[in-house]
Design brief:
8 helices, Rossmann fold, five-stranded parallel sheet, 195 residues, globular, alpha/beta, 55% helix
């Protein structure tokens, strides 16, 4: 299986990915992946985001897609024998690109070349709550501002409601406790397996 965990910066994606690995590793061979990757293009992206000096949003989103294209074969190979849990995927490219004024339709079409996961879970968190968590962590990158997060939330809502193109997407309440969110995600994964 291939499961993606998505949401705003501060939604708790990385926390949930790690909790899922720990909860499921006795039953499944679990592999954790993330975007941007730790490979060459991903490292460039991480540096740009930390510097908050992105001069061209099209360039940034194309870098994300290049990183994903480079990583695609690894994911396809891993998912054959493992439960792959991914921290971010092309849904973030759509949402964050849209937040910077790029066309939703263009972003959806440009990312349609990438394989879809079996399940994409979007942790639905209010932007103010996400920012509160980020400020608590002391991290602020290019996208971590309230006006940007509000636009990103709007784009994730568009993806959630775009059932024809994204039937694999399931939104869950990310404002709940970490334990409750983990339980919700595990229930979704087992329901999919039982199908």
């Amino acid at each position: 299986m291939f499961v993606v965990i998505e949401g705003l910066d501060g939604a708790g994606k990385t926390t949930q990915v790690n909790r899922l690995r720990d909860a499921l590793k006795d039953r499944f061979s679990v592999k954790i992946e993330k975007e941007p990757t730790d490979q060459l293009i991903g490292i460039i992206i991480q540096g740009l985001l930390r510097s908050r000096n992105v001069k061209n949003d099209l360039f940034l989103q194309l870098l994300f897609m290049a990183d994903r294209a480079y990583h695609k074969d690894d994911i396809e190979a891993l998912r054959k024998d493992n439960l792959v849990i991914m921290d971010r995927y092309f849904y973030s490219t759509i949402a964050y690109g849209y937040s910077k004024g790029m066309s939703y339709e263009w972003l959806v079409n440009a990312n349609s070349v990438f394989p879809k996961p079996d399940i994409c879970i979007i942790l639905d968190v209010a932007p103010k709550e996400a920012l509160r968590r980020l400020n608590k962590e002391g991290s602020q990158d290019y996208f971590e501002r309230l006006d940007t997060l509000n636009k990103v939330k709007s784009a994730f809502d568009m993806i959630i409601n775009d059932r024809d193109r994204f039937p694999e997407v399931i939104a869950i309440d990310g404002n709940k406790s970490a334990d409750e969110v983990t339980k919700d995600i595990i229930n979704i994964i087992y329901k999919h397996i039982n199908k």
